[in-house]
Amino acid sequence: MLNAMTLPWQTWVVLTGIVGLLVGSFLNVVIYRLPRMMERQWRADCESLTAGVEAKPLSPYNLAVPRSACPHCQTPIRATDNLPVLSWLLLRGCCRACRGAISIRYPLVELVTAILSIAVVWRFGATWEALCGLALTWALICLTVIDFDTQLLPDQITLPLLWLGLLAARCLGRGPAALPVDIDSAVVGAMAGYLSLWLVFQGFKAATGKEGMGRGDFKLLAALGAWLGWQLLLPILLFSAGAGAIWGIALIALKRHDREQPIPFGPYLAVAGWLIMMWSQPLTASWWPLTR
Questions:
Q1: How far apart are the first and last CA of the chain?
Q2: 177 and 107 in one domain?
Q3: Which structural domain range is residue 210 located in?
Q4: Chain centroid to CA 182: how far?
């Protein structure tokens, strides 16, 4: 890839870490604003339907406008106070203007994004596989935190991730043990991923009269199937279901979660998908003979 492997590995670690920190800062914006953008649009649509007239235009609110501001005093954040991790440390986790506390989650998201990005490049090298792995990693981080916060997996992320996986498979796919996989594995993976959870959803609803999961989970597993292929869907499901069950039982046993309170499943799918992506080749090599 443009003779990039001639660079020392230390240089790759530093460059990837810097890019990961910057992307993590942007993911913080998406995590905070996208659910609010969706809610604003839902409220406007509801008001329009209720009043029977077209809703008034909303003030601009998107990923770029308005500028980032302190959640307490609404003072716009200076560019020098918006450096990933470093600014939070220098300001001791407080707003410069009002000294209100700024959540530690912001630098944590930036650090996690940098660390996972380095891991992906270390695993795949300076290749197109690494670029695909980074795109999938960043989307999964964003979806994980949003689902924890709101129990939403926005279509604005899951659907582009699904189509991007199919496009990558069409243009770059090389086989069931590669990233991205070949187009046949990707298409079947997307269909099987969606239908598998849809069938579970319908079966649970028929048996209990309740909805056991959100439809965003179907789309996320479909996206993972598009990127990783149908061959790895079963390991993803087994890992995520097992981890989710263990964590849920632990929370209930510790009386930190009510039995009737739903637990987001998206984070477990995301973690399972990322871990299996990192070890997709040995997993596919061992699992593939059983699927033929």
A1: 33
A2: no
A3: 128-292
A4: 23
Question: 240 with 269: CB under 8 angstroms?
Answer: yes
**Helix, strand, coil proportions of the chain in percent (round to 5)?**
70, 0, 30
What pLDDT, on the 0 to 100 scale, is given for residue 44? 77
Report the pLDDT averaged over residues 250-258: 66
- C-alpha span between 102 and 70 (Å, rounded): 8
H runs (alpha helix) in 152-232: 155-172, 183-208, 215-228
Peptide linkage before 160 cis (omega within 30 of 0): no
Position of tokens 């924890």?
A: 148
Give the angle subtended at the CA of 165 by the CAs of 188 and 171, to the nearest 5°.
Answer: 95
- Token pair 């792995």: residue: 133
Q: Give burial (CB, 10 Å; 0-12/13-18/19+) of 216.
A: buried
133 and 122 in one domain? no
Separation CA 151–CA 213 (nearest Å): 10
The model carries a pTM of: 0.89
153 and 244 co-located in one domain: yes
Together in a domain, 120 and 200: no
